[in-house]
Design brief:
Length: about 650
Amino acid sequence: MRPDDLKLTRGVSDPQISSDGERVAWTEMSFDLDKDSPVSKVMVAASDGSDEPRQFTNGPHDLSPRWSPDGRYLAYLSADDGPPSLFLAPLGGGSATKVDTPGPVSWYEWSPDGKEIVLVVSVGLPDPATKDPKVTNAPRVMRGAFNRFDGRGWIDGRTHLFVCHVATRFVRQITSGDYDHQQPSWSPDGKKIVFVTDRSRRRNDVFWRGKVWIVPAAGGRVQRLSGALGEPCTPRFSPDGGRVAVAAVPQVSQMAGRHHQLLVFDVQRGGEPVRVAPDLDRPVFERIPFTWLSPSELLFGIVDRGSIIVVRARIGRRSGSALVDGDTRVTGFSLFRSRGQRLLAYTAGWVDTPDEVFVRALDDASVTPTRISRASDELLAVVELTGTRRRRVKSRDGLEIEYFEMAPKRTSPGRRNGKTPLYLEIHGGPHGINPHSGLFPYYQTLVAAGYTVILPNPRGSTSYGEEFALAVNGDWGGEDYHDLMACVGDALRRGRVDERRLFVGGYSYGGYMSSFIVGQTNRFKAAIIGAPVINLFSEYGTSDSGAWLAETVGGDPWRATALYRERSPITHARKVTTPVLLHVSEGDLRTPPSQSDEFYTTLKLMGKKVEYVRYPGGSHLAVGPFGAPPSQNEDRLWRILDFLGRHGGNKVRGAARSN
């Protein structure tokens, strides 16, 4: 795969099976090359794979399809001409119509009878179309320390719950106050709505905290169901309405690295929640909404040894059983159940199998899942992708570390004495995981250029147990550094990589570690450093997540001053001899460009070999294939190949960039 193959990449997400089980809708991402922009549309196909997928919406920014329970509509969000709005497309024929709301819609869910929809709507936002200079020039007054968020920008207004009556399109507000209300879901009888909100006095200073509440669907007095939770996600009523489950960290202090758990609350009695499958010791993958299979059994995603799998578990049992597992990353699913038949629609992929939509029988593991999307057919017709091999090695203190190896063909270019250059790729987080299926173009481009790529999961990585994830807290640049070096050493001992051609790279926390590594050793010929943390002191005050940083780094900067200084890569800049390529998006609020500015300026004025590329716009997520204009991500890949080739790596035809 070459960087110019990126334009053939397609992505799929959010599979939704219809109320009759006959069809599946999903969001499909691609590129408009003329406008140099990622685009998305809603696709639909038969759940048995009997027909070709068809485009249901025209895009360019359509997403989040949801079938109405009565089979009359397919709803979706569209941001074609501004902020996201809700559209209802009648399945019996006719054009989709927009639901008028007082602000952008970020979430919605049909009522069980299909007659109403609950929406999350942002209100009190500045008018983006205003031309009044007194408005556009007005000062911005911060309402708290949590005042901006990566991918969103400045936090203005509040999010409230609204209910739309489908027949009349009348929309009424059912929550109020100076609070944000999120992720609503209906009770089975349609009379109540459960949701998440933070009504604490410090709600403007912290984030990823809240409690579970219930409000009558008609509006009225709210009922608090839970105490304070860390990052509570997608609360859902049980089929009998007697319980509510929520994915959350069961504490609000020292959350960094803690597992999301599936917690079940009794609606009538309240009290402490019951944890589902407490012996799993794996985090619930909170980005996939779980579903109830019965009043006592749930289906949910967990992160396990680099994979994201689907498990089922009964309340009261100590563990669960895998339904979809192996080397895969499930990124979404939905369930159909009727008259004894249960079907699961899900999206999944791996680094050598781009994400597609599958359907399988829930209760018959012997039946092979049916692939119903064709998103990657065009790409796979012209490229050959390389798979992964799991490796394990003991770190210096005896802790077992797993890494994934992607090796080029024996006929690949750039071998010397039968050996390839090695590229150490470090994931973000630190509570992230390798591999990341969404980054497969990055991995595959390096492998196609003749590099053996290793993808370690050092301590701090999720998916190996909570104790393993917590082990990095207070020790950035400590034992995690030795874990990474152990993986490099193991790859060298296998005798297939060239010890004189070692390279390192990473993004976010991976950028931090890459920056730290080149200040500790000169064994790497070049480093590719993306969106790094360079100065822990300034990152604390300029990032959108400074409070979280303090939890995982080991304290606030005024309490852990020596640690912040010692573990900041900029402290060790004078020792850097490795050539460095820095890259960052100018809209990144998580690891702001000022971090890269500090490292570049310091290295440049010291006379070090350093190059620096800033990409306009974007966010911290720009490195994914659909997070930035395709021209930027293609340029990023070419620049990486060019830089590596100029500093001892394999030279790739067409990679040379103007500097």
